[in-house]
Amino acid sequence: MLQAMKHAREMQHREKPLTIFGPVGLGGLIDRSNKVNNYRLLEQPFRVDLVEVEPLEPFEIVTGVEATALKTPHTSESLAIHIRDGEGTLVFSSDTAPDETLVALANGVDLFILECTFVRNKPVEKHLELAEAMHLIRKSHAKRAMLTHFYPEWDDVDFQKAVAEFSPPCEVIEAVDGLRLTL
Fold it and tell me: DSSP label at 129?
């Protein structure tokens, strides 16, 4: 993203700073990327601020919008995020294996966004399949849920029919390109 922004004509006159939030180690990752080919990713026409967030330490994204991250069982950098303002709440899981602490983070949220890499019979532990995602949704008591991060095995699956087999406790939305939701 930073490489594309650096060379995009549309960004050459941007003045508004860009803040990027990420796990501890984000700055080091960008430094290592820079060293590959002297990319100078942080040398943009606008200021770039990196904020490394600690799990379970609240932080402000913008005025009036607070967030808390939670470590997910995927990689050492993987974090779920709980975002809230005066209007609503959402949780985005990122990549994750089944995790009961994620249920607590998403308790009663307006929108729970979960990865759902596999339909069933997943070959790896560090992602969710549909039954696991539906279990987490049910236990979270979320008002709505969205599933995303689909591997190609989903291509021939009727999403609504597959979800309906689990008698979802709330609306479960299929993430598709260009989708817009109102919270």
Answer: B
Distance CA 116, CA 132 (A): 8
Token digits for 56? 């379970």
Task: Tell the CATH topology of 56-177.
Answer: Metallo-beta-lactamase; Chain A (3.60.15)
Residue 46 confidence (pLDDT): 94
Is-contact 146 112, C-beta < 8 A? yes
The answer to whether 94 touches 78, Cβ cutoff 8 Å, is: yes
Q: Where are the domains of the chain?
A: 1-53, 56-177
β-bridge pairing 79-84 and 89-92: antiparallel
d(Cα 154, Cα 19) in Å, to the nearest integer?
Answer: 34
Nearest to 115 by CA among 138, 91, 139: 91
Rounded to the nearest 5 degrees, what angle is found at the Cα of 174, between the Cα atoms of 173 and 179?
Answer: 90
Q: What is the pTM of this model?
A: 0.89
